[in-house]
């Protein structure tokens, strides 16, 4: 994607932000799945917790792709890279917020380093007090402060303020950009938009500006949560993924940030290690080849779903490749090699 070099909101800049949102959501998946499948005991609470996060990241990917279509552009699904290549509009090294790891993930087992990076990705933007001029606004505990928060974001992003310190800030800027450019300058087409979770309360198909706001709110609340007290980052009931069997009910009231904090506080599970012995190399090569083929198939399916209109509700179009990745990545760890996705 070519970056629009401008400090004035344009329709293309808004569209580029939406495409970057897809790239960001896709970026988290191999990283999170690599850590997830390194856990030996799939009944361990840490495994179930990270799996629930991965399911919700797929929802966020769907919402970001739908947002692209509503804003008259096409989502793109390139394989993420984990070599320090910048992601558009995000700051790779911000000394004020210490978010130097935000887009510099290194694929590895679940350990203190990868867990800290997950926390960095999911950090609530409300924790960054320097961004909020109103006293106390960083603790969003009632309607008044929530209103002030939204008003602050809109005023702050009337002109583009990238690179952004957090993913949440990028989404807030996207919403402000739509307002500045003009809501009526977008068609809000629903063609090829998808709703894989048909029985949920939150908005999935984006038909108007208010739907875009709700989609971004769903992404932000599930990832960051709402501060409801000391060390609590809960998801309001209407924004939870309530009817997904793989999203354990013991976790889905908590934001990704709080789920990861709980893992950090409770201690890390046993994970697979790497093994460079000569006799393992063939098994490792086969496992990696299978993973890369399965992931490439998923990326092709994603493009077909959103850019051609293939039916997402057919298992072989979406969920089968997705869950195939779990087995393929775990096979890499069992062969003693870190999953490499492309």
By CATH, the architecture of the largest domain is named Up-down Bundle
Poorly predicted runs are 95-100, 128-145, 227-231
Q: End-to-end span in angstroms?
A: 19 Å
| Total number of domains | 2
Instruction: Write the CATH homologous superfamily of the largest domain.
Output: Ferritin, core subunit, four-helix bundle
Instruction: Tell me the Rg in angstroms.
Output: 20 Å
| Shape field | globular
- Name the CATH class of the largest domain: Mainly Alpha
Number of beta-strand segments = 2
SSE layout:
Layout: H1 11-37, H2 45-70, H3 112-121, H4 143-156, H5 167-181, H6 209-223, E1 226-229, E2 232-234, H7 256-266, H8 281-307, H9 319-334
Antiparallel strand pairs: 1-2
Helix pairs in contact: 1-2, 1-5, 2-6, 2-7, 3-7, 4-5, 5-6, 8-9
Description of the molecule:
This protein is mainly alpha-helical. It folds into two domains: 11-271, Ferritin, core subunit, four-helix bundle (Ferritin); 278-342. It is built from nine helices and two strands. Strand 1 and strand 2 form a beta hairpin.
Outline of this structure?
With 342 residues, the protein is mostly helical. It has helices at 11-37, 45-70, 112-121, 143-156, 167-181, 209-223, 256-266, 281-307, 319-334; strands spanning 226-229, 232-234. It is globular, with a radius of gyration of 20 Å.
């Amino acid at each position: 994607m070519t970056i629009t070099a401008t400090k004035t909101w344009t329709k293309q800049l808004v569209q580029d932000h939406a495409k970057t949102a897809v790239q960001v959501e896709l970026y988290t998946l191999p990283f999170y799945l690599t850590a997830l499948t390194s856990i030996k005991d799939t009944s361990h609470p840490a495994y179930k917790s990270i799996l629930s996060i991965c399911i919700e990241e797929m929802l966020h990917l769907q919402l970001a792709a739908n947002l692209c279509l509503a804003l008259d552009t096409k989502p793109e699904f390139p394989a993420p890279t984990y070599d320090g290549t910048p992601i558009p509009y995000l700051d790779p090294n911000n000394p004020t917020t210490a978010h130097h790891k935000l887009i510099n993930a290194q694929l590895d087992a679940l350990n203190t380093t990868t867990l800290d990076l997950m926390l960095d990705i999911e950090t609530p933007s409300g924790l960054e007090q320097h961004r909020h001029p109103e006293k106390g606004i960083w603790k969003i505990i009632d309607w008044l402060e929530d209103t002030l928060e939204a008003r602050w974001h809109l005023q702050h992003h009337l002109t583009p303020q990238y690179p952004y310190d957090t993913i949440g800030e990028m989404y807030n800027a996207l919403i402000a950009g739509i307002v500045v450019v003009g809501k009526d300058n977008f068609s809000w087409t629903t063609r090829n938009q998808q709703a894989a979770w048909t029985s949920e309360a939150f908005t999935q198909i984006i038909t108007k500006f208010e739907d875009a706001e709700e989609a971004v709110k769903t992404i932000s609340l599930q990832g960051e949560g709402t501060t409801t007290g000391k060390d609590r980052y809960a998801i309001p009931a209407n924004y939870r993924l309530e009817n997904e069997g793989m999203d354990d009910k013991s976790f889905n009231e908590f934001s990704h940030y709080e789920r990861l904090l709980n893992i950090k506080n409770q201690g890390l599970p046993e994970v697979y290690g790497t093994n460079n012995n000569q006799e393992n190399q063939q098994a490792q090569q086969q496992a990696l080849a299978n993973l890369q083929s399965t992931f490439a198939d998923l990326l092709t399916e994603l493009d077909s779903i959103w850019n051609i209109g293939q039916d997402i509700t057919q298992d072989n179009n979406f969920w089968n490749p997705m869950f195939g990745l779990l087995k393929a990545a775990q096979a890499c760890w069992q062969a003693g090699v870190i999953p490499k996705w492309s």
